[in-house]
Specification:
alpha/beta, globular, Dienelactn_hydro, hydrolase activity, Rossmann fold
Length: 232
């Protein structure tokens, strides 16, 4: 894993990146939480983000996680989602620059990061799939997803006291009515918003989805151990 920096709209953006030896490996961008309720845990080193980062690398992805503006060593200040979406778009540009042969792009977000992730997929057609974890549907407007252009997975904790399941299920039901787009929904039993004590369940759910949605890549990586190189 290597610490990386690149220029964003508000200045320097900090990230951690690992690149697969396979030049055609799928690519993932992972976006962290940033709600008032989890602000102090809202960075790229959150344990849920680390869990996602690890499982994506295990499945052969070139993976980048970033700190949004004003977090860690990233410059700027919190911008209520507007600037953070620009940060995510800049990170995707950076990934494309370093993975010119890849045709698979996965956007992954947790909590606030899920909201940014789902806005990003509406603006960037090169993204083929998404994973949204605990999307804060009761705190932010998700009406821009009309329609949702790509398939994806939405994961919710059964005991989430920050984002009620009913609110997330309403979004899932709306997206599921679309033709030719498959939106999977997983409710994790006993899990709260932060998946405390349930990270293994979260990891297994994401792992299973990746192996199905990126089946050709998943099978190839299952039969051969990928060594990863650091981008310095």
């Amino acid at each position: 894993m290597s610490e990386v920096f690149f220029n964003g709209p508000a200045g320097r953006i900090e990230g951690k990146y690992i690149q697969s030896d396979n030049p055609r490996a799928p690519v993932a961008l992972i976006l962290h939480p940033h709600l008032p309720s989890d602000f102090f845990e809202g960075n790229m080193n959150h344990e849920v983000i680390n869990c996602l980062y690890s499982i994506l690398i295990k499945n052969g992805f070139s993976a980048l996680k970033i700190n949004f503006r004003g977090i860690g060593k990233s410059q700027g200040t919190f911008d209520n989602g507007v600037g953070e979406l620009m940060d995510a778009a800049t990170a995707l540009d950076w990934l494309q620059l370093h993975n010119p042969s890849s045709l698979e792009y996965l956007a992954v977000g947790f909590s606030f990061g899920a909201w940014i992730c789902m806005q990003l997929i509406m603006r960037r057609p090169e993204i083929n799939n998404f994973i949204a974890i605990s999307p804060p549907t009761n705190k932010f407007d998700f009406s821009f997803l009309s329609p949702c252009p790509i398939p994806g997975l939405i994961i919710q904790g059964e005991q989430d006291s920050i984002v009620p399941e009913e609110s997330v299920l309403e979004l899932v039901n709306r997206l599921s009515r679309q033709k030719n787009i498959n939106i999977e929904y997983k409710l994790l039993s006993g899990a709260d918003h932060f998946f405390r004590g349930k990270l293994n369940d979260l990891s297994n759910t994401v792992d299973e989805y990746i192996k199905i949605s990126h089946h050709s890549t998943g099978k190839k990586n299952a039969s051969k151990k990928h060594q990863n190189k650091l981008l310095l």
